[in-house]
Amino acid sequence: MGEILDSHGDNRLDVHVGLTLDDVRPPSDEEILRVEDLTVEFPTDDGVVHAVRGVSYVLHQREVLGIVGESGSGKSVSSMAVMGLLPRTARISGRIFFRGEDVLALPQRRRRDLRGKKIAMVFQDPMTALNPVFTIGDQLAEAVLAHELMPRKQALGRAREMLDLVGIPQAEARLRAYPHEFSGGMRQRAMIAMAVINNPDVIIADEPTTALDVTVQAQILEKLIEVKDAVNAAIVLITHDLGVIAGMAHKVLVMYAGKPVEVADTDAIFYSPRMPYTAGLLGSMPSTDTTGHRLRPIKGAPPSLINLPSGCPFSPRCPLADEECVTREPDLALTDALDHRAACHHWPKMKAVEDPTVFFRAESEIQG
Ligand SMILES: Nc1ncnc2c1ncn2[C@@H]1O[C@H](COP(=O)(O)OP(=O)(O)O)[C@@H](O)[C@H]1O
Ligand code: SF4
Ligand SMILES: [Mg+2]
Predict the structure, then answer these.
(1) What is a single molecular function from GO for this protein (predicted)?
(2) Ligand 1, pocket residues at CB < 6 Å
(3) What is the mean pLDDT of residues 156-178?
């Protein structure tokens, strides 16, 4: 069986180059998911971890929301709360509505029903989600049969269609393959197939391409966009890398220390950020223009979520921080544009400069 399964690299699997959200149907105004003031805490021996501190968003049909932030900012925990996959020790408050239904108030059985069928997840590492001892076909069929009564043969038929949909050639033969016989990119495609096999309304993709090389990353993201349109699903796309969001998300929620610190349309995030942290993230992206600006990581590290500093949690790293910043934490508030919110006392200073990443450049760079 090796011939079909082993020899092909990912590069020859996909013919779509440069697909973006502009090429697919726009979101409708049908509200699918609403998260209101979600808070998650973990009591531990060292103290209470304030992992998520008031996340709110609304997701419409076919809409893609990007959630961006450094590692440890609460991106995964907030999504696991939506999926109902947090450990029992987690203290959750706030509200989560799926198609108007209050998810946190549902009985366990109904929540299990939602999970995997209506809200599906694509994880960073497919090997943690795929079982090494079962074939891809068996696992895809199982995902169907967990939610729907049908003959196994029919479920396998659906599995084959899904492998086709995600661009895995010779799907029939590959149903009989085991996860380790797939390359990294193919495994991630199989995960996407598994996520969409029950026609979900929401796909949560948590760093779905982080482990893959750049070419394969682009192919997988394009496939995700194509697939969401095919099944009419909305996507929550989680990443630590702002570059992944460009062209792929309609709107973006930037997280820092468990809190949303900027929420806006993707263009506004890239071209007119109002929160210094977002500008710092932009400045740390590899430059695609010819100015030769290098990758410039934001100095310092995010604060402990057990002992948060007083005031703005970004203040120890923020080039604009002043007295007010260290005494009072800013609310996420409207800025100068409709639907553009930022948690910063000094957002007008960001508006006043042409290139907000300038605050994060060294003195020498600015003069030179
Ligand atoms: N089960 C848990 N118990 C205690 N702390 C946790 C648990 N799960 C996550 N955390 C903490 O919550 C914070 C947010 O984590 P996470 O959402 O995974 O970050 P991200 O996905 O943004 O990298 C981190 O500080 C992490 O250590
Ligand atoms: S509130 Fe102050 S410290 Fe926080 S991001 Fe704004 S300027 Fe920086
Ligand atoms: Mg994570």
Answers:
(1) ATP binding
(2) 42, 44, 49, 51, 69, 71-77, 87, 305
(3) 95
